[in-house]
Amino acid sequence: MGGALVGVRIIEVAGIGPGPFGAMMLADHGAEVIRIDRPGEGAARPETDILARSRRSISIDLKSPEGAGLVRDLVADADGLIEGFRPGVMERLGLGPDDLLARNPKLVYARMTGWGQTGPYAKTAGHDINYIALSGALHTFARATEKPLPPVNTVGDFGGGGMLLAFAMLAGILSAKNTGKGQVIDCAMLEGSSLLMSMIWGFRADGSWRDEAGVNLLDTGAHFYDVYETSDGKFISLGAIEPQFYQTFRACAGLEDDEDLDGQFDQARWPELKAKLEAVFKTKTRDEWCALLEETDACFAPVLSFAEAPSHPQNVARKAFTDIAGVPQPSPAPKFSDTPAPAPRPAGKAGGETEAILRALGYDTEKIAALVASKAVEV
Fold first, then answer.
1. What is the Cα–Cα distance from 379 to 377, expressed in whole angstroms?
2. Which of 118, 180, 188, 231 has the greatest number of beta carbons closer than 10 A?
3. Of 28, 79, 128, 157, which residue is the catalytic one?
């Protein structure tokens, strides 16, 4: 299949959100990822389950002793394992780090949770919105005088969760190759979302960021860094921070001689200038603004819907989106010069390769039949 991660083998205990996303990233770039699904997951996993693409699937009852033994066999020659249960669940199944590292001392055992494995919240339920609230990130996602707006679940689940999980897995594998020793990785979306805010913490430390939403440079406090509605009810984004880009924007928009827009960084005037630009942008349609500002250094882009994004010329040129089995979706990223990512494969039937995977492990027909009869696996 190709890809930068050919030869890497990961066992993924099926979950939701960040774990599957991290596993998808690894699979996108050529890692062999075997996903452990639960029996009874259904005849097929929908092809619309983008996070489950490019994997093989085996159906195992982790609560059965035979199923747990099968997992230990699967990790015997794997580089890593991903699990996203609450703390203590894998231990109760006989599949905790001590159990699996005893079988494979080089294994990288990655644990994906919201709060982390320790602390007073560790065993409580939560979701992205809760993790980014406690990290301080959610407080910044708001306009002045308005309540915080969760950026769907990109910051906790995917940026601070799954993406850091994929990074941690590869770092752990490199360490294991150098030292011959695996380890446990405690991935917490709480800390991951906090890490994503590192630059803002720096701004806060040097006095250029206030603990007040919607009044700062990058949180729509500035008139030159915001989203504006156009006359046709659509939107454009403006990010003309640097003075030269701000001047380019003014020139392209026919505002170079408007003295009201001087004093770009006079924060006391930002609300007044924002109101002015709101009126200016409503004088033209989004397409008319695109004709004036696109492909200039005005730091401008139209706000596109999911329906529109795949057909934008920049995305087309970059092949940023792909269609798999009739389902439009983001292409693997980033791009590698010598080991490009293979074309993603749609998610298949849950447990659809159970027998093939068992045979590759050396299980014969009689042993497979016994596992099926005991309901430890489903084929």
1. 7
2. 188
3. 157
3-state secondary structure at position 238: strand
For 21-50, give the DSSP string. Answer: HHHHHHHHTT-EEEEEEPTTS-S---TT-G
pLDDT band with cut points at 50, 70 and 90 for residue 41: confident
What's the number of CA atoms in the CB half-sphere (13 Å) around residue 187?
31
pLDDT above 90 coverage of the chain, percent: 97
Please tell me the pTM assigned to this model. Answer: 0.95
| Cα(255)–Cα(248) distance, integer angstroms | 10
Q: What is the pLDDT of residues 180-189, one digit of tens each?
A: 999 999 999 9
Are 54 and 25 in contact by the 8 Å Cβ rule? The answer is no
Which entry of 127, 139, 186, 297 is annotated as an active-site residue?
A: 127
**Distance from C-alpha of 147 to C-alpha of 338, rounded to nearest angstrom:** 47
Q: Which two tokens stand for residue 327?
A: 């389902």
Task: Please give the DSSP secondary-structure letter assigned to residue 322.
Answer: E
Asked if the peptide bond before residue 334 counts as cis, ω within 30 degrees of 0, the response is yes
* Cβ–Cβ < 8 Å for 34, 8: no
Q: Is 127 a catalytic residue?
A: yes
CA 169 to chain centre: 14
Instruction: Kindly give the pairing relationship between strand 56-59 and strand 327-330.
Output: unpaired
Which of these, 130, 104, 251, lies nearest to 183 by C-alpha position?
A: 104
Q: Tell the burial category of 243 from Cβ atoms under 10 Å away from its Cβ (0-12, 13-18, 19+).
A: exposed
Q: For this structure, is 219 an active site residue?
A: no
The distance in angstroms from the start CA to the end CA of the chain is 25
* Alpha carbons 43 and 169: distance in angstroms, whole number: 31
Q: List the one residue out of 323, 355, 332 whose CA is nearest residue 31.
A: 332
Which amino acid is residue 35, in one-letter code? R
